[in-house]
Prior knowledge:
Aspartate Aminotransferase, domain 2; 7-stranded mixed beta sheet; 4-stranded antiparallel beta sheet; 37% helix
Amino acid sequence: xxxxxxxxxxxxxxxxxxxxxxxxxxxxxxxxxxxxxxxxxxxxxxxxxxxxxxxxxxxxxxxxxxxxxxxxxxxxxxxxxxxxxxxxxxxxxxxxxxxxxxxxxxxxxxxxxxxxxxxxxxxxxxxxxxxxxxxxxxxxxxxxxxxxxxxxxxxxxxxxxxxxxxxxxxxxxxxxxxxxxxxxxxxxxxxxxxxxxxxxxxxxxxxxxxxxxxxxxxxxxxxxxxxxxxxxxxxxxxxxxxxxxxxxxxxxxxxxxxxxxxxxxxxxxxxxxxxxxxxxxxxxxxxxxxxxxxxxxxxxxxxxxxxxxxxxxxxxxxxxxxxxxxxxxxxxxxxxxxxxxxxxxxxxxxxxxxxxxxxxxxxxxxxxxxxxxxxxxxxxxxxxxxxxxxxxxxxxxxxxxxxxx
Length: 405
């Protein structure tokens, strides 16, 4: 059998980053506030805001930091209730707890998207803010969600860690709510090892987040545009909040920004390649009656670098056997609910004081599978992955042929 590709290898760093890194190491100017202006982090913020279609951006140490700062910048009172999906990464409820708020979980359906009826019902439970996780890049119905939240005056934060390059009605995910938060961790579309960025059109929210991120004294002035072209609203907001907010020191370093910036021009190519690869594997898997890749919603144009699919009609023992059969062929499949410590299974978030029971979400997670599909994979490598998954399901279900070949 051909060698199975290492799907956990991150996207390569462009050669263009090396010269920038060498220059930074030679200068020693790794701190974002050393230069009077145009530090790599500041340039990244301007470039990313232009790319995504937001007025403002704040680069920070992680997407979790961006989520935390978004909540703090909303000025929510202690113990405010924040509604989040039951299917997300543990960092999301953790950011809510870190912000001295209380996570409230809602159901998620078999298509990995928020169950709108349950979401609407829980909005009536004294909810102060909402975080929408576009988990693994699957976009929930943002038209319905925004209508429900706007009618109640509830701010929405988008956790777009997996959705850089995804659009909804042609608009970039992350720009629909009050704030959007992205990740540059190694398994994301842009790889900096760690890092995150917050985007918003709200000058007051941005100013509060900048100061709390660690812009002490007058360092907020270095968040001005390249020509000092801050809007009057932003200038007023910075002046209003200086020295009045705690500093959490969640800044991004110039080293991370130097790694990220040369990858921004690569984003469109990576998104296109990822979509083609995902859709090819999805079509092959959907040919099996025991594998189901949920369809995207009509307004959604995804930017995937992984594939999720549900096992249909399998018992717990058969689900374990499927994962073992794939691993024996060289491909590790994550079944979200079948691990005792998976950080995406809500019942493992035992740091929460009151874990709810979400039967619909639990049932989905017990059969939902996850495989990375890096955008660098060739068609033959994608076919090999599909062949392994189809052979594994055929072995477990007793089928005498691999579907879709």
